[in-house]
Design brief:
There is one protein chain. Helix 1 packs parallel to helix 3 and helix 3 runs antiparallel to helix 4. The chain contains 4 helices and no strands.
């Protein structure tokens, strides 16, 4: 008799570009999404392309740095932009842009954390299966 258990519910922070863990090709979609979060120059580094958890970790670090940079830009906009000759209306729009970017980066960071946890769980279960076969 086929299982009628419902599929696990994913967090709202799970990236829509990544298939659910355990489904066919989910790791491939996770890897593609994680690679897209990094600067293009990282695509050639084989440790990141061959090891999904390393890729997720690097994406996590990259996002942490981006979040810090946007926070600094947001916190210093009112003090520094006028000295650069930026108009008040542009400063207000820039502050709104930084605030929106900070929200987006936060969502991405939560998504990376969830994907990394799923990749680590998947990797651990594969190691257990391998050990049982030996």
């Amino acid at each position: 008799m086929p299982s009628t258990a419902p599929a696990p519910t994913l967090s709202p922070d799970w990236p829509c570009q990544v298939k659910s863990p355990g489904t066919r090709d989910w790791e491939r979609t996770a890897t593609r999404w994680l690679r897209d979060l990094l600067p293009a120059r990282y695509a050639g580094y084989s440790p990141l392309t061959r090891h999904h958890v390393l890729l997720a970790r690097h994406a996590q670090l990259q996002l942490q740095h981006e979040i810090r940079a946007v926070r600094v830009a947001l916190q210093t906009s009112r003090a520094e932009l006028p000295t650069l000759g930026v108009a008040e209306s542009v400063i207000e729009n820039t502050i709104r842009m930084y605030a929106l970017e900070l929200e987006q980066l936060g969502r991405l960071a939560r998504g990376v954390r969830l994907v990394m946890e799923a990749l680590m769980d998947d990797s651990a279960s594969q190691r257990r299966m391998y050990a049982q076969r030996r």
